[in-house]
Structure formats: C-alpha cells, structure tokens
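Message: I would value a second opinion on how I read folds in token form. Give me a protein, with the fold worked out from its sequence. Write it directly below this note and I will take it from there.
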Amino acid sequence: MHEIIKIVAKYFIVLSVIGVAIVFARLGRQDRLRFAALLVLGGVVSYLLAKVGSHLYNDPRPFVQGHFRPLLPHAADNGFPSDHTLFTSFMAWACLVYSRKVGLALLLVAALVGLARMAAGVHHLSDVLASFVFAAVGCFVTRALIAKFYPKPITGNEH
C-alpha cells in the first residue's frame, strides 16, 4: 500500500500534463491560444495566490508535528499549500473550461494526489483544500480576464 501512495503522490502529476495535451490537441486554433493563455497566466496567478497564502499561514508538516518519518523524503518546511495539488488541480480547472469530461477526470486525479500526499505524511487536509481553492480562483479569474480582452469571434469561424 505504501508503494501505491508514493506512486500517486509523486507521479500522478504526469496524468495532468497528459490531460492538458489531450484537450489542447482537440481545440481549434483560437481556442488553443486562449487555452495556452489560461494555462500560463492562470498558472502564474494561482502560484502567486499560493505564495501569498504561504506567507500568511504557516502549517508545519504532519511528520514534523507527529514526529514520524514520512513516506516521501521532504524538507521540514511550511506545508501550506500543497504545490503538487496546486499544480494538478489548476490543470484540472483549466481543462474543465474546455472539456467537462477531461476536467472532471483530472479533478479526480488532483484529489488522489492530495489524498496520497496526506497519506504520505507531508500535507494536512487544509494544505490540499487551499490548493484547490487557489487554483480555482487563479483559473477562473484569468478565464474572465481573457474572455474580456480576447473575446471569441462573433461568426464562430476560426480559420
């Protein structure tokens, strides 16, 4: 069981990248540009929100508080928020904008990554939930800004 937790916690992040590639490949040219802008700008916004959050709230990692050895080697630094969960959940929220099916599947992947990181003893539930919130806010604020400044063509023709 420990090996499964380690694999999910460390490597399921790759599934998010694959999901993004699938969504990107299925989009038309204009939507690809919007999606790429969402990924880059929304990723930056989500990351900045997480950085601000980490400066406002300090959450010692579970293995530090509980004096045990985590399943994954990790620095004994602030665990808030979970970077792995932030990345995977942001990718999921971004994909959800363009593909409900892929986005929901990736939200499940992000939840599994967060749960595995908790089971590995490197994050608390608050770290994981905050990552989902920071990623969602970063994604949807950026999506609204992109829609405002780069609206879709009225004709719908995207040649």
Observations:
- The chain has one domain: 2-149.
- Confidence is low (pLDDT under 50) at residues 155-159.
